[in-house]
Design goal:
Layout: H1 14-27, E1 33-34, H2 46-56, H3 71-85, E2 95-98, H4 101-112, E3 118-123, H5 128-135, E4 139-144, H6 160-163, E5 166-172, H7 184-197, E6 200-204, H8 226-229, E7 230-235, E8 248-252, H9 254-267, H10 273-284, H11 288-310, E9 314-315, E10 323-327, H12 334-345, E11 347-348, E12 350-351, E13 362-366, H13 371-394
Parallel strand pairs: 1-11, 3-4, 3-5, 5-6, 6-7
Antiparallel strand pairs: 2-8, 7-8, 9-10, 10-13, 12-13
Bound molecules: pyridoxal-5'-phosphate (PLP).
């Protein structure tokens, strides 16, 4: 058997490798507390689970779903965009439910890229933008997100030779992994840039509802002319603690939505209908849980930031997202720092380079650890600092 050459470009997914490492340590009886994947520990709200149980009992929901979902779901998604962002969407042509936004992000590459085309991808970033671009035969061109530029890409720095081959620009705010936010002024500039260079914009916004200190992130679709050149991916995963149920959406430009629907209808068979009913309940039902969950993450964020700064990192409190992006102490690479924490005190943080070369010098910590584990992990981080200082004074 010979695998395709495409497979040579496909390393195991970041978290598959990390989870393997954790499992090996645990199998040896070692404790590992993980600040790894951004997977909310708080359960899905009970009203949403009730809908699932009800819908699961109805045989109408036992059959193949439609690729583009129930009309009531598309309407609920459009109505939520209207209430939350004052963005009006046609539920029939500008809304497409997804089996989690990761699925849509992966398939989108096949809509925009031919062999040798360039995808402009932030660095560091959620790995799927670059991986799916490569699988589709495209070439990712990395746009460094630097602290100096508040983790916003410098669109003016892209060489003309690259721009002439570029077909798609990926953006993601509130940002994973840096926790940075972007305002409408940047999205307006991005739309203008896409128009001038004939690019499709794919904005990935699963964290618009996870925000702190009263901050309200914007949607890309609020930008002037946004829907003429782009779409936005959204997800119920983080807003409603629904990562395990797999449901998200793409919204915006009707031509781009139609292309994605064509790819999907040829490759998947839609979202189980009982899960679509959960999403309708989540979007139309009571929204207070969002603020309640954000209060929990905010409290954790402040504890994590304090301890990181105590142990020699430089971490600012993010305004949004589930992540603290911390500059590591001098003398380590990101990989070495993560390895030191894991080996010495059994705490897993993700090296910034897992998200791209510009992540060097940083680590990412997710705020989705239950409180008791969080407190324990923080005391272990403080203990790492003590043992590290002892080691330094001896050498
Ligand atoms: C930036 C970003 N986009 C997309 C996703 C995928 O979310 P979903 O659960 O909707 O597939 C994640 C998940 O961590 C993410 O961080």
């Amino acid at each position: 058997m010979k695998l395709s050459q495409r497979m040579d470009q496909l390393a195991p997914y970041l978290f598959v490798e990390i989870n393997k490492k954790i499992a090996e340590k645990r199998a040896r009886g070692e404790e590992v507390i993980s600040f790894g994947i951004g997977d909310p520990d708080i359960p899905t709200p009970p009203n949403i689970i009730e809908k699932l149980c009800e819908a699961a009992r109805d045989p109408a929901n036992h059959r193949y779903p439609e690729t583009d979902g129930l009309p009531a779901l598309r309407q609920a998604m459009a109505a939520w965009y209207k209430r939350r962002f004052e963005v009006t969407l046609d539920p029939n042509s500008e809304v497409l439910p997804l089996i989690g936004s990761k699925e849509g992000i992966g398939h989108a590459a096949f809509c925009f890229l031919d062999q040798g085309d360039v995808a402009l991808v932030p660095d560091p970033a959620y790995p799927v933008y670059a991986i799916s671009s490569k699988l589709a035969g495209g070439e990712p061109y990395y746009l460094p997100l630097t602290e100096a530029n508040r983790f916003i890409p410098d669109l003016g720095s892209i060489p003309q030779e690259i721009l002439s081959r570029a077909k798609v620009l990926w953006l993601n705010y509130p940002n994973n992994p840096t926790g940075a936010v972007a305002e409408l002024e940047f999205f307006n500039r991005a739309v203008e840039f896409a128009r001038q260079n004939n690019l499709a914009i794919c904005h990935d916004g699963p964290y618009t509802e996870v925000a702190y200190d009263g901050y309200k992130p914007v949607s890309y679709l609020q930008a002037e002319g946004a829907r003429e050149v782009g779409i936005e991916f959204h997800s119920l995963s983080k807003s409603y603690n629904m990562t395990g149920w797999r449901i998200g959406m793409a919204v915006g430009n009707a031509g781009m939505i139609d292309a994605l629907k064509r790819v999907k209808s040829n490759l998947d068979s839609g979202i189980p209908q009982a899960i679509q009913y959960m999403a309708i309940e989540a979007l139309n039902g009571p929204q207070e849980v969002i603020a309640q969950h954000n209060n929990i993450y905010q409290r954790r964020r402040d504890l994590v930031v304090d301890v990181l700064n105590d142990i020699g990192c430089i971490a600012a409190a993010p305004k949004a997202s589930l992540y603290v992006w911390a500059k590591i102490p001098p003398g380590f690479t990101s990989m070495e720092f993560s390895a030191s924490l894991l080996e010495q005190v059994g705490v897993l943080v993700i090296p910034g380079t897992g998200y791209g070369p510009s992540g060097e010098g940083f680590v990412r910590l997710s705020l989705t650890l239950p409180d008791a584990a969080l407190v324990k992990a923080l005391s272990k981080l403080s203990a790492w600092q003590d043992s590290h200082n002892r080691f330094k004074s001896k050498h």
